[in-house]
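Q: What would this complex look like in 3D?
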Amino acid sequence: SDLGGNATAAIAAEINKLAADAFALYVKTKNFHWHMSGPHFRDYHLLLDEQSAQIFATIDPLAERSRKLGQPTLRSIGHIAKLSRIKDNDAEFVSPAEMLEELVSDNKAFTASLRAAHEVASSHNDSATTSILEVYLDESERRTWFLFEASRGADRTGH
Amino acid sequence: SDLGGNATAAIAAEINKLAADAFALYVKTKNFHWHMSGPHFRDYHLLLDEQSAQIFATIDPLAERSRKLGQPTLRSIGHIAKLSRIKDNDAEFVSPAEMLEELVSDNKAFTASLRAAHEVASSHNDSATTSILEVYLDESERRTWFLFEASRGADRTGH
Amino acid sequence: SDLGGNATAAIAAEINKLAADAFALYVKTKNFHWHMSGPHFRDYHLLLDEQSAQIFATIDPLAERSRKLGQPTLRSIGHIAKLSRIKDNDAEFVSPAEMLEELVSDNKAFTASLRAAHEVASSHNDSATTSILEVYLDESERRTWFLFEASRGADRTGH
Amino acid sequence: SDLGGNATAAIAAEINKLAADAFALYVKTKNFHWHMSGPHFRDYHLLLDEQSAQIFATIDPLAERSRKLGQPTLRSIGHIAKLSRIKDNDAEFVSPAEMLEELVSDNKAFTASLRAAHEVASSHNDSATTSILEVYLDESERRTWFLFEASRGADRTGH
Amino acid sequence: SDLGGNATAAIAAEINKLAADAFALYVKTKNFHWHMSGPHFRDYHLLLDEQSAQIFATIDPLAERSRKLGQPTLRSIGHIAKLSRIKDNDAEFVSPAEMLEELVSDNKAFTASLRAAHEVASSHNDSATTSILEVYLDESERRTWFLFEASRGADRTGH
Amino acid sequence: SDLGGNATAAIAAEINKLAADAFALYVKTKNFHWHMSGPHFRDYHLLLDEQSAQIFATIDPLAERSRKLGQPTLRSIGHIAKLSRIKDNDAEFVSPAEMLEELVSDNKAFTASLRAAHEVASSHNDSATTSILEVYLDESERRTWFLFEASRGADRTGH
Amino acid sequence: SDLGGNATAAIAAEINKLAADAFALYVKTKNFHWHMSGPHFRDYHLLLDEQSAQIFATIDPLAERSRKLGQPTLRSIGHIAKLSRIKDNDAEFVSPAEMLEELVSDNKAFTASLRAAHEVASSHNDSATTSILEVYLDESERRTWFLFEASRGADRTGH
Amino acid sequence: SDLGGNATAAIAAEINKLAADAFALYVKTKNFHWHMSGPHFRDYHLLLDEQSAQIFATIDPLAERSRKLGQPTLRSIGHIAKLSRIKDNDAEFVSPAEMLEELVSDNKAFTASLRAAHEVASSHNDSATTSILEVYLDESERRTWFLFEASRGADRTGH
Amino acid sequence: SDLGGNATAAIAAEINKLAADAFALYVKTKNFHWHMSGPHFRDYHLLLDEQSAQIFATIDPLAERSRKLGQPTLRSIGHIAKLSRIKDNDAEFVSPAEMLEELVSDNKAFTASLRAAHEVASSHNDSATTSILEVYLDESERRTWFLFEASRGADRTGH
Amino acid sequence: SDLGGNATAAIAAEINKLAADAFALYVKTKNFHWHMSGPHFRDYHLLLDEQSAQIFATIDPLAERSRKLGQPTLRSIGHIAKLSRIKDNDAEFVSPAEMLEELVSDNKAFTASLRAAHEVASSHNDSATTSILEVYLDESERRTWFLFEASRGADRTGH
Amino acid sequence: SDLGGNATAAIAAEINKLAADAFALYVKTKNFHWHMSGPHFRDYHLLLDEQSAQIFATIDPLAERSRKLGQPTLRSIGHIAKLSRIKDNDAEFVSPAEMLEELVSDNKAFTASLRAAHEVASSHNDSATTSILEVYLDESERRTWFLFEASRGADRTGH
Amino acid sequence: SDLGGNATAAIAAEINKLAADAFALYVKTKNFHWHMSGPHFRDYHLLLDEQSAQIFATIDPLAERSRKLGQPTLRSIGHIAKLSRIKDNDAEFVSPAEMLEELVSDNKAFTASLRAAHEVASSHNDSATTSILEVYLDESERRTWFLFEASRGADRTGH
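A: Here is my prediction, written as structure tokens for the whole assembly.
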């Protein structure tokens, strides 16, 4: 790339962490999709399926963006675990309300990470990368909106 | 389920390990898809993309099968890392020939795991599970066939 | 058929009862779909529509399977009423929670009938029939899972 | 509804009987579809499948029309059996010609019931209901035309 | 048109008011779609989106029907404001239950307006117009049914 | 049909004349579509193609409607020529403006014939026929609108 | 066209007669499609519908081919009646066997007319026209084959 | 949102005015689409339909963008009337040329408003919003181009 | 394959014979499709086309199944001729009734061969192969049903 | 190819010139599509877009036809410029009427070139090439027809 | 057919041999598709699958062309073996390079046979047949081009 | 445009050069697509076809962007030749490796030109233009990645 090795290494470092975050957020969203319960079961099961599909669809373009910059990208489950900033939640039972709230804050954090990566790419003039991230920013804010509104006034008993 | 708690726990244990394997094999196949090089680049890039898509498509049905049996399933990247029997390969450079060969043996191992899980489900009379696994067995053997034939006579220099 | 008249008569007897069950379960699921009420109206209305469509789609293949075995199949509403093991519910008002719970147990019973029929077909070596039933077993267990999770923690007032 | 309780009850009573008729006529048409025989097997098998699909497609709109009027609708196989005016035919063997002729008169009777219901709805100014019934009248007359022309000159031996 | 100037002017006057109502009801339904909150967020957000799309789809045919009668139709936001009989609701917070209830009565009023316009068109023998309005009557009654059933037993706190 | 022989013969007589009119109007519209010229060539060529397709689509339903009433229908080009009330225009050159104007009056006449046939069917209670004609009335009035507006202010030189 | 006025006039004369033949054959095929009767009703009704659609699809390309040669084409029902070489059959009752046989000879005659027109176009080097006619020749021979085989061994009583 | 309340309020204020403008421009474009006349009728009728559809498609994303920022959005026809900067044109007759010219300047003004909003969002680092506006800027400039070129050399008589 | 060389050779031997049978049955079904005659021409022509397409669709999966087991498969027309157990019928004229009857017994024989192969695969635990064969068993029994019912009461003169 | 080197070289020479012509005519048609102005803007903009797409679609088949004959084909913009017989028009302003007229004569010239190439291919018995050219001849004559009719009676002021 | 018995017999003899060749070439191409190996496995596996599908698609039209001429066509595997001029290759191992080269010469021979048949049909004025063969000639030359270019510079070791 | 004449002229100058580059790069990519040879023939033939289609799809939006800015755009092959910065390669034989390498550097140069144009548009605040270029930057970097990886380790003999 004509952007120089320092630039591309710095940008790819951000992108690869985002791709790892997306993977982890994808698995957590599916986790809650699979273990949902209560009267809202179908509605939330579908909501989380749609959101997980949207998150998953960002992974390949992010990873390929690194490769287009001439940099390596994700290699394994272990590599993802190392790079990702989204925490695992292996609890046996999570109430629907807690699921929504945890995803609200994970998506907020992901939005912030996207914005940070945008700044890095922008500072190196990599407008192809920023253009992609802008779409993901909007999607991430949309997921947060849905999850936040759905979690308002939720009943603490889990349903 | 009318199959009894011991049966469903035993079957779900197998299924969840398969789902974790599928996740890890998916990531490794994408790893090689992303880092492919040499004159066969496009051909192998597409081959591994098709194979990864086929592997990925098994994860949700496997996880949901556990849930239909009333058992929990995958929860996180860390959970996947713990359950999966596919080894990470984080090497910086892997030649195309080595990629194909490593995937041949991973897919072979996955086939064997599928057959073992089939036996467990079959011994507990869970014919809905066996029916699903039979399709994945055929697909896994097909991936192995393609990878094996493509790796015959390959040049050791990596291309 | 090369399976012999005793075998095909025994298998068809099972299949025709399943087809009649499917008809009755279809009508009950539509009954609840049509008479649903309360804040979850749209969500459950859609859930039961999807489930009824899945149940309905089993009827023609089951009936035609009997015919492929050279045996007769369903003939009329009266015939269905005689063969079906699913109970009518003609109550004027059924609360949403009761609807979900009644369908949980009807689908569980249907699963058990499918497994019993599978055993009969299997004992006579009719692997085309068993292959079809395996798909319906999985679907029936999936419907039960959805209905069960949705009915957890439901409010007894009907909403 | 702004149509008043007497009006909607009277209209719904007609609609629910039509929905029950449609169910019974659907099952009889499928009965003959499944038990067809003779040189015209495929042609009549398909004809009756097309006609049964057209009949089946009227049931949900009819039942939902009752609900839109604020009235209850069909509840079970037993309820259908009680309301329907189409006779069961559980004979073991019915010749193709007899099948076509019996369906000619059942469809004619269904047309007359549709026209009677149309009159009731029209007398109460329920033009949304009449609009739906007009389409079903045309379809019912079309089925009768096809069945009548196909049954002309048919051989009494059954083929 | 061969219907005469008095007839077409009278009919178009009704149609244009309906088109303005549809516009206002469309915007209110979207208003509630955008500002929905609480555990039913996604379900009601989608419900109102589907209903708004159905309402919106009536506007162009209504306006073009006036033009086919040789009469003018809607011209601007101000024109809509003047003709529409649906009240604005600019409140900052509306609870989900209030949203559903307000739409129940708006849709009921719209149904009555449709029926009144049907009478006018019918009295002038304009059967192309009545035919279109009959479909919209059915749709409007359907929206009312959904909204009414969903608002039964709703919790006054807004969720 | 339960409508009686006098009724069906009277209705079919109207319908068959409409079908013949539709054929003749179809051919004339194609005539002008094929022989169009001048700066608006493509626009009018497409307009007349769309209109001819809409007219053509009425012929089969009209003819089949006669058959559903147990009456015969169109048989040949000669039969069409005898029944149709649309005049041939075999002139070598017709200016675009004259084409549009001639079609305006032919479509107006066709609208009037549709309304007359509607009255006959309505007087015999044949609501399946009236329902079909109502759609064609609207389409015919739409074609007239388009042709009329396009012919306003047209240049007499032919372009 | 660079083919010269004599050539294009001669070719267009042939093409326009073919287009008129196609129209007349289309109407006759629909005539028999509408008035079919007997045990083969649905099968022949569909056969003739497919054939009529194939014939109809030749009319626009033939007429436009004349226009591309700078020559006029069909103008009206009367024009078609004058040019067409296919005879009307306005008989009240035609047996199915007679229908098939009459269409066999009409399609044979149409094939011969196509071949004659091909010769004219070919003699003037108009290879765009010959290319189109070759496809229609094949279709016409296919229709003849189907009709001929279906009419073999047919019963003279009409069914 | 991590952008802070001042930022999101400022951006949403701009977005909501754009959404109101889009609504008003949509209605005016439809107004002219419905009341078009003259030889270009069909061409301009379609042009304005395409443009209105493109404008309409911006409303929901703009309104939802405000909601993703945690801000309210449009509520009613009255609210739109208050926020919009596009003037109503309720004149009884507008010539085609005047229609095109008025839309040229309305679209130009809308472009300028989009650019101003872009600046506000950009100054607050809201790159998801700027990314959406960039697409609408291009579309608005395209509509202006089409309208401007079509209005060049237009005849003042209205056609 | 982990099934061992003896197992895979034994299974592949069965599969390759089935693939050869399928080829031969495909050609015979097409032979009768091409040389059909008599009043049922179109109906049987289509029936045999559908059946031939279904048979043809089994060949590639069968052949690839051998390859997935690491065994060779079909190589040529001569190889097919050697392996196939379906007899050629090169008779110049076969009556429709004879065609249907010959295919009844060929399909029955094919069903028996499928069941025999199923037993071999099952005895070697090759559940991917058995799963595929189960679908083909059902299809083969369906073809037999259709052919058998259509051949009942057929006329020996060939039509 | 079995056609011999002299034949294939002669044919390919013709084909490559046609491909270059098509490229140049494509660019000119797009030139006029992009720079169109006046009241017919949208209509002619679309007309030229459709025509340019049709022309563009001939390039790859023409070039590949040369390759199938074992001959080279187009290599670059410079190569196209050298081979093409269509003149560039780089004028700053071309009136719509002049655009249509210039394209009329360019398409006429292209038709003549196609016919000349047809003769060469035909003289060498290359019927695969002639078959392709026949389709392009028809398309080229159709473009000429549309452009010619649209340019009749056009106003010299450019609009 | 109006072409005379000698003509149709001569043409059909050619066509049937071509259909048999196509069958044999289809099987050989699939043979190599199934038994491909080496680094180009996927690429050649797909290439041969595409080519086999293209060859297969010619068989039904060729066979039906004979039937349209009133002549019989292919009947069995044995019949194909007798008529085909393509040699079987039952070798256990064929290197990829040898596969490509053998198919180059088989396709060349098939091209020559197509040209010879074209000459026969052309000499009898059967332009429907020649029109079909022209398309197959182009396809056959295209397959040869691909296979030839792919076999250039291939490595003799088989990979 | 509200951007001012200097700005739009400067931006359009950049865009038109990019459009010309895209044309030239399109033709060169097709050149190599058509003249490819060697064992990778199909793989590279497809690769270059996909890349050429992607490049081609940029031309119309680029040219129309200039027009939206009120500036002229490309006019002819000669104009393209003058503006383009991509060099022609008319060599008779280019080895596959050289083809890939030459395209690597052409695409790199095109990327740099895109970035330069982005800077110009950005400096004039034309965010609609920058938004489009960002997508093309990403695509151009993707093409370079594929071509570069495929050209690694390539054999200098041309295959």
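A: To summarize the key features: The longest helix of chain H spans residues 5-35. Chain H has one domain: 5-151.
Q: Very helpful, thank you.
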